[in-house]
Amino acid sequence: MRILKVGMVQQSCGPDIEKNIRKLESNIRECASKGADLVVLQELHNSVYFCQTEEASLCDLAEPIPGPSTERYGKLAAELGIVLVTSLFERRAPGLYHNTAVVFEKDGSIAGCYRKMHIPDDPCFYEKFYFTPGDMGFNPIETSVGKIGVLVCWDQWYPEAARLMALAGADILVYPTAIGGVGTDSKEEQQVQRQAWQLVQRGHSVANGLPVITVNRVGHEDDPSGNTIGLDFWGFSFATGPQGEILAQLPTDREENVVVDIDLDRTEYVRRGWPFLRDRRIDAYGDILLRYRK
Q1: Is position 153 annotated as part of the catalytic site?
Q2: Over the stretch 106-135, which tens digit does the pLDDT of each residue have?
Q3: Does the annotation mark 51 as catalytic?
Q4: Domains of the chain and CATH, by start
């Protein structure tokens, strides 16, 4: 039995970037002290979720990869001997930016990157203004703890992304996330949305026979433009086994760190009983490449 201990860091963020990072470092250390081999952070964890508005000057938050953040998080991963999944605002070239997950190996080196493929453009989530869609495909990142299929937030609604990671040999699906309710939505509506968000990812777990780790930010963040009443991030980070079974579920209203045991060998057992990959009709799926089929 291969047990992977995964640390999940659910925290709130404020306008002081250095304060956010120091808190992240403390939370990562707590997970490592509890035996975590792999620690996962939420989406764009260094700062507030700046995509509530379209403001070109906020591109100053972006940084190169490698760069200051990768150096800092790499040193921490090496010190603690953990694999670490981070989420950064990448400056690739002048005027060219990505929402990029960076995975660090236990020696502090960069094991690999994933650039977010699906980019939303909705009220309070104006990511298309900032991020160019990823161009690295859906490829798991090889690490000492297994092949990590890293996807980011909006990617989590797309079964194609999870499937392609599974078909490329991912041992686990990992989703750094920043999702919450627009303040004008009722609590009842936000609960329905939150349940749908978890349900679709549990579906990816079931359909692919893979564990899923989803880490979301938590707390209220104001809209700096004042045009809305801001976002209430759901928290509700969770982990599933390969049949969608909930292994850990964090609260909706506060920060929390948790370390969860993931049995990587269970995928083999589950897929033998539910051989979805065996029975796929790959000869009949050509139309999936169409935008809409009518």
Answers
A1: yes
A2: 999 999 999 999 999 999 999 999 999 999
A3: no
A4: 3-276 (3.60.110.10)
